[in-house]
Amino acid sequence: MSARRVISKLDFPYRAARPPAGVPPAPDIKNRGADYDTEWARKPAARAARRVITEVVMQPAMAALARPRRQGLDRLERLEGPVIFAANHHSHIDTPLLFTSIPPKWRNRLVVGAASDYFFTGALTSAASALVIGAIPIERSKVGRRSARLAASLIEDGWSLLIFPEGGRSPDGWGQPFLGGAGYLAVRCGVPVVPVHVEGTDRVLPKGRNVPKVSATTITFGDPLVPTEEDNARRFAARIEVAVATLADECATDWYQARRRAHAGTTPGLTGPNVSPWRRAWALGDRSPRSRRQHRRWPK
Predict the structure, then answer these.
(1) 157 with 81: CB under 8 angstroms?
(2) Is the bond preceding residue 13 a cis peptide, omega within 30 degrees?
(3) Over the stretch 15-74, which tens digit does the pLDDT of each residue have?
(4) Three-state DSSP class for residue 68
(5) Which residue, of 107, 147, 182, 284, has the fewest CB within 10 Å?
């Protein structure tokens, strides 16, 4: 008896499952989600179009809506080569705001890690995301091999990456624990990570709202972090989260107080108190820097 006839007599899982009679097989959807091919968006014509969109549309829009104040750019003056920008995430405004805030030295060869299950679900949204912000699909529920391989190959080819380690926007104004993607890529590729803290975008366009509201924002760039031989992906991701929390403290108070708390290991975390939702909302209060200088932070 031939091997093919033997296999045909075996049951699942030893042979591939077949749909019931009369039920057509599910369509094989290609070029969607994590499989979307973004190579065309890094061609010279697409990059030229992206520069025009950035300068003519995106920068004026962000200046009008977010009124950004940018701090810490002097910390990047001696930095060369591709880097990973890792930022907290509260709003869809975060991406265009950071894209227009990152210096042209990196912006002109910058890709943005975007959730494959949100930005790459349809032909139109996929193409727009890839063209306008240079997005590449990232699987946020896990470190997918395809996503990691694509991001690593681009970094090794001289591209910088903007990524949101939280994996999604904040549901309540507080931060979420950082996932390991940024740490994994930094360790794998041996490139520095620039921690970035974004404040105020949840007032412009919070999760659940479709109409933006004009409000001031602050973008604070931190000192680059370089992985050491002792760092693995998880340990380095924890270092990135602490660095972004320190920048949040700096934005709320000042550089000196933030560094004192960082040295003492008492920097307030990004995720807020582990209490009931109403107490989390009360502790959040008005998170503008001016207000937080006048009121006690959580915790004291």
Answers:
(1) no
(2) yes
(3) 445 556 666 655 545 667 778 899 999 999 999 999 999 999 999 999 999 999 999 999
(4) strand
(5) 284
